[in-house]
Each structure stands twice: as structure tokens, then as C-alpha cells.
Amino acid sequence: MTLPMHQDAAAAAAAVLRRTRMILLLLLLMFSLSSFPSVTAECPEKCLCIEEIFFCHKKGLDRIPDRIPPAIKVLDLSYNEIMDIESLAHLTELETLIESYFRNLSNNNISELKHGAFANLSKLQSLLLNGNKFENIETGVFNNLTSLEFLLLHENNIHKLDSEIFKGLTKLYKLTLNNNNISEVKNGAFANLSKLQILNLSNSNISEVKNGAFANLSKLQTLLLNGNKIENIETGVFNNLTSLDSLSLHDNNIHKLDSEMFKGLTRLFKLMLSNNNISELKHGGFANLSELQILYLDNNKIENIETGAFNNLTSLKVLHLDYNNIHKLDLEMFKGLRKLDKLFLDHNMIRHIPPGTIDSLTSLSLLWLDHNPLTCDCNILLFVNVLKKSYPQRDVLWDNDPSCHFPVEMKEKSLKEITKNDFNCNVVENELFYLIM
Ligand SMILES: *[C@@H]1O[C@H](CO)[C@@H](O)[C@H](O)[C@H]1NC(C)=O
Ligand SMILES: *[C@@H]1O[C@H](CO)[C@@H](O)[C@H](O)[C@H]1NC(C)=O
Ligand SMILES: *[C@@H]1O[C@H](CO)[C@@H](O)[C@H](O)[C@H]1NC(C)=O
Ligand SMILES: *[C@@H]1O[C@H](CO)[C@@H](O)[C@H](O)[C@H]1NC(C)=O
Ligand SMILES: *[C@@H]1O[C@H](CO)[C@@H](O)[C@H](O)[C@H]1NC(C)=O
Ligand SMILES: *[C@@H]1O[C@H](CO)[C@@H](O)[C@H](O)[C@H]1NC(C)=O
Ligand SMILES: *[C@@H]1O[C@H](CO)[C@@H](O)[C@H](O)[C@H]1NC(C)=O
Ligand SMILES: *[C@@H]1O[C@H](CO)[C@@H](O)[C@H](O)[C@H]1NC(C)=O
Ligand SMILES: *[C@@H]1O[C@H](CO)[C@@H](O)[C@H](O)[C@H]1NC(C)=O
Ligand SMILES: *[C@@H]1O[C@H](CO)[C@@H](O)[C@H](O)[C@H]1NC(C)=O
Ligand SMILES: *[C@@H]1O[C@H](CO)[C@@H](O)[C@H](O)[C@H]1NC(C)=O
Ligand SMILES: *[C@@H]1O[C@H](CO)[C@@H](O)[C@H](O)[C@H]1NC(C)=O
């Protein structure tokens, strides 16, 4: 394996280039001193060639140059005006092929990537085809690319993902399909991509994700589905993603979270559900996510949080519930979140805070509560006093400074400044009184 696993194809190509940077510098120097178009004898006119690396980037080429020697390893044809991509079959040693933005789109209407385009490129590890407005990809076009690790197809106009399209890409590590026009992700579309770790399907006009769409992706670590039009997610869709670390579902139209939805995601670290239309969090909805550390649920319509909704989130450190319609907090709500460090409850409709609500949050360092119509009363005073007492070393309310909304005479008064003299409560000295209430 010559590609570093955690790098993008472009970065990989850059790594190859870095090895020959000195040569490159020399070459550039020669360029500036002479009018020779290149040093390598076989280097096509206009291109820049360094050993097995052929740079034909942004050269106004309207066709693939003739006589490219078969031994080259990197070919960059990006930003040209090429229409025919079917004459590379002799480059059997090619490892990186860059054909990003290689067609002049104002100049042609070829929208199909045809069968045979990449025949014989069995050593190809990186294929960059992004930004070409391809509409259709013929089934079988990637069939012989048995070494392929990086396949970039973002910023095209792909509207159909045939279930056989990626068949045989058993080494694939990263696949980008973001910024396309895919309406439906079919069952089995990514079947057998057993090495895939990153799949980007964001901003692709996806409205439906079928059960089985992500079957067999047992190595997948990052799945991006944000910025689509997803309303419903079939139960079980994420079931077999046992390596998944990060799941992006923000900026969709999801309104219901099935309690089994995230069932198999035992490794999940980060879950993003911001900017959806979720109104309710059900009991056990996040059960089994015992590794989850960051949960984004902000900018939804959450009104009802069932008791036990956050059960078992024993690793959770950051919980975003801001910009929702939460009216009510109860004593059981955050129970068990013993690692929780940051809790965002600002921009909701919370009026009352039962003292003890956050008692179990022994690791809490920041609590956002501003922009809630808080009613300042004996309970809130008790809550604030408990806060001060439980976290003497830190100011958990920090400087977001929540203030009273009711009663009118206390409007805008900072929560941090209320004292027992503001109310007529005689039991507040005893912080434990709520326990016997
Ligand atoms: C693939 O390579 C073989 C042998 O090198 C050659 O005969 C064949 O024409 C190539 N295929 C294409 C589509 O060029
Ligand atoms: C694309 O082709 C058109 C028509 O031939 C030409 O005017 C234009 O300059 C080309 N654009 C680029 C970016 O090469
Ligand atoms: C564009 O498409 C039209 C009709 O589909 C076809 O007649 C024409 O030859 C195409 N032009 C190019 C440059 O492929
Ligand atoms: C795959 O390779 C085989 C043999 O090397 C060849 O016959 C076939 O046409 C290739 N298929 C594609 C889709 O390139
Ligand atoms: C997945 O692989 C299995 C066995 O390797 C094969 O039978 C099946 O057809 C493949 N499925 C797809 C959709 O490629
Ligand atoms: C996206 O695909 C749909 C069909 O699925 C089509 O109606 C629409 O025109 C496409 N949008 C663009 C920008 O091509
Ligand atoms: C998943 O993999 C198994 C075994 O490799 C295979 O039999 C099955 O067809 C695959 N599932 C799908 C949906 O391709
Ligand atoms: C996925 O695509 C989005 C654009 O839709 C981009 O901002 C993001 O960086 C991509 N992420 C990865 C890991 O490719
Ligand atoms: C998204 O898909 C719908 C059909 O499902 C289509 O009408 C619409 O034009 C597409 N939007 C874009 C931006 O392509
Ligand atoms: C999960 O994997 C099991 C066994 O590997 C398989 O039978 C099942 O169909 C898969 N389910 C999904 C939703 O991919
Ligand atoms: C959000 O969901 C509600 C029902 O819960 C529905 O009435 C409303 O139309 C949805 N909003 C959007 C933008 O789809
Ligand atoms: C929490 O996990 C335990 C076992 O780890 C399980 O028995 C229990 O059902 C889970 N709780 C919820 C609410 O799912």
C-alpha cells in the first residue's frame, strides 16, 4: 500500500509530489529560465512531467494527449475542456487519476460516464471525478478497479444509484457523492464495500433511505447524510454499522425518531440531528449508544421529552437541546448523565426548574439557560443556591447570564443575583428540603 490511509486522494497525490519537490523546484527554475515546455522526452506538449507524474492541469486541453507512456503513475487532467475520456486503457500502471472539473461544461452535453472508461486500470488507487456534472454512471464502469481506495464523485448531477454500481470495489476507503441529485438510496447500493470508512452523501437531494442501503458496511466510520430532504428513516437502516463513529443527519426534515433507529451503533461518538422537525424524544431512543459523547438536537421542535429518553448515555459529554420548545424539566430527565460537561437548554420555553434537576450531573461545567421565560420563585432560588454549592469552583452559568422573566417586578433580573430577600420563602436555607417534598 503506497497511500497513507487517512489522507484524501489529492493529499496522496501531493505526498507523491512532495517526494520530488526538489525536482519540481529545479524544474520550475528551468521553466523560468528557458522556453522548453518540459524535461521528459515523452511529456505531452503543454504538460509538466516529473518522473511518473504527469501534470496537465488547467492547460486548455480539448482531448487527452496522445502518446502518454504506459508506465506513468499519476495523471492530472483537471480543469480542461476534455470530452472523451475513453482512451486511457493502456495506462495500466496508473495509481492516481485526477479528472476533477475536466470538462468544459458550457461546451458539451455529455452527461454519462460510460462503461469501459476505466478498463484495465487495475492499479488505480485514487480516482477523482468530482465537478463534472455527470448525470448517469453506467453500471460496470468501475468494475475492474480492484485497487481503488478513493473515489470522488461529488459535485456531479448523479440522480440514480444503481445497486450494482460499486460492485467489486472491495478496497474502497472513501466515497464522496455529496452535492449530487440522488433522490433515493436503494437497498444494497453500497453492499460489499467492506473496507469503506467514509461515505459522504450530504447535500444530494435525498428524500428516502431504504432499509438495507447501508448493509454490510461493517468498517464505516463516518456517514454524512446532512442537508438532504430526509423525512423518514426506516427502522434498522443503521443496524449493522458497528464501526460507525460519526453520523450526520442535521439539516433534514426528520420528524420522528424511532426508538430502534440507532440500535446497533454501539461505537457512535457523535450524532448530529440539529435543524430537523423532531417534536418528541422517546424513552430509550438513544439506548445502546453507550459510547456517545456529543449529541446535537438543537433547532428542532422538541416539546416532549419522555422520562428515560437519555437513559444509558453514560459517556455523553455535550448535549445540545437549545432552540426547541421545551416547557418542562423534571427530576428524572438528566439522570445518569454522569459525564455530562456541557448542557445547552437556552432558547426554549422553560418556566420552572425543579431544584435537583441537575443534581446527578456531577461533571457539569457549563449550563446554558438564557432566553427562557423563567419564573423566579423559591424553587429557582433553591436551584441557584444548589448550583453555587455543588460547583463552588466554577460558574456553571458562566456569562450567558439567564434572567428572570416572571414575575414582572423581577423581569430582566439576573438569576445569579436573586437572593432570599427577593421572595418570601423561609425554607430555602435548607437545600435538601426538596428531597422530602
Ligand atoms: C486492456 O489491456 C489489454 C492487454 O493489455 C488490451 O488487449 C486491451 O485492449 C485493453 N482494454 C482496453 C479496453 O483497452
Ligand atoms: C469553454 O468553451 C467555451 C466555448 O468554446 C469557451 O468560450 C470558454 O472559454 C471555455 N471555458 C473554459 C473555462 O475553458
Ligand atoms: C448534445 O445533445 C444533442 C441532443 O441530445 C446532440 O444532438 C448533440 O450532438 C450533442 N452535442 C455534443 C457536443 O455532444
Ligand atoms: C475488465 O477486465 C477484463 C479483462 O481484463 C476485460 O475483458 C473487461 O472488458 C474489463 N471490464 C471493464 C468494465 O472494463
Ligand atoms: C456481495 O458479495 C457476495 C459474495 O461475495 C455476492 O454474492 C453478492 O452478489 C454481492 N452483492 C452485491 C450487491 O454486489
Ligand atoms: C434532479 O432530479 C430530479 C429527478 O429525480 C429532476 O426532476 C430534477 O430536474 C433534477 N434537478 C436538477 C437540478 O437537475
Ligand atoms: C452482505 O454480505 C454477505 C456475505 O458477504 C452477502 O451474502 C450478502 O449478500 C451481503 N448483503 C448485501 C445486501 O449485499
Ligand atoms: C462532505 O460534503 C460536504 C459538502 O456537502 C463537505 O462540506 C464536507 O467537508 C464533506 N466531508 C467529507 C468527510 O468528505
Ligand atoms: C430534488 O428532487 C426533486 C424530485 O424528488 C426535484 O423536483 C427537484 O428539482 C430536485 N432539486 C434539485 C435542487 O435538484
Ligand atoms: C445485518 O447483518 C446480518 C448478518 O450479517 C444480515 O443478516 C442482515 O441482513 C443485516 N441487516 C441489515 C439491515 O443490513
Ligand atoms: C413539521 O412537523 C409537523 C408535524 O409534526 C408538520 O405539521 C410540519 O409541516 C412539519 N414542518 C415541515 C417544515 O415539514
Ligand atoms: C440500558 O442498558 C442496559 C444494559 O446495558 C439495558 O438492560 C437497558 O434496557 C438499557 N436501558 C434502556 C432505556 O434501553
What does the model show?
With 437 residues, the protein is mainly beta. Helix content is 8%, strand content 14%. A 15-stranded mixed β-sheet has the order 1-2-3-4-6-8-9-11-13-15-16-18-20-21-22, covered by helices on one side. Strand 1 and strand 2 (53-55) form a beta hairpin. The protein is elongated. The model is unreliable at 1-7, 32-39 and 428-437 (pLDDT under 50). The site of one 2-acetamido-2-deoxy-beta-D-glucopyranose has 4 residues, from loops.
Level of helix content?
Answer: under 10%
Give the overall average pLDDT: 85
State Rg: 29 Å
Ligand kinds: 2-acetamido-2-deoxy-beta-D-glucopyranose
pLDDT < 50 runs, ≥5 residues: 1-7, 32-39, 428-437
Largest sheet, in brief, is:
15 strands, mixed
Terminus-to-terminus distance: 67 Å
Strand content: 5-15%
The sequence of SSEs as H and E is HHEEEEEEEEEEEEEEEEEEEEEEH
Number of helices: 3
- Shape type: elongated
Strand order of the largest sheet: 1-2-3-4-6-8-9-11-13-15-16-18-20-21-22
Structural class of the secondary structure composition?
A: mainly beta
Could you give the count of β-strands?
Answer: 22
Domain LRRNT: 42-74
InterPro entries: Cys-rich_flank_reg_C, Leu-rich_rpt, Leu-rich_rpt_typical-subtyp, LRR_dom_sf, LRR_TM_domain-containing, LRRNT
Signal peptide: 1-41
Subcellular location: Secreted
Topology, element by element:
Layout: H1 9-19, H2 21-33, E1 48-50, E2 53-55, E3 74-76, E4 96-98, E5 112-113, E6 126-128, E7 136-137, E8 150-152, E9 174-176, E10 184-185, E11 198-200, E12 208-209, E13 222-224, E14 232-233, E15 246-248, E16 270-272, E17 280-281, E18 294-296, E19 304-305, E20 318-320, E21 342-344, E22 366-368, H3 378-390
Parallel strand pairs: 2-3, 3-4, 4-6, 5-7, 6-8, 8-9, 9-11, 10-12, 11-13, 12-14, 13-15, 15-16, 16-18, 17-19, 18-20, 20-21, 21-22
Antiparallel strand pairs: 1-2
The structure holds 2-acetamido-2-deoxy-beta-D-glucopyranose (12 copies).
One 2-acetamido-2-deoxy-beta-D-glucopyranose binds at residues 181, 183, 205, 207.
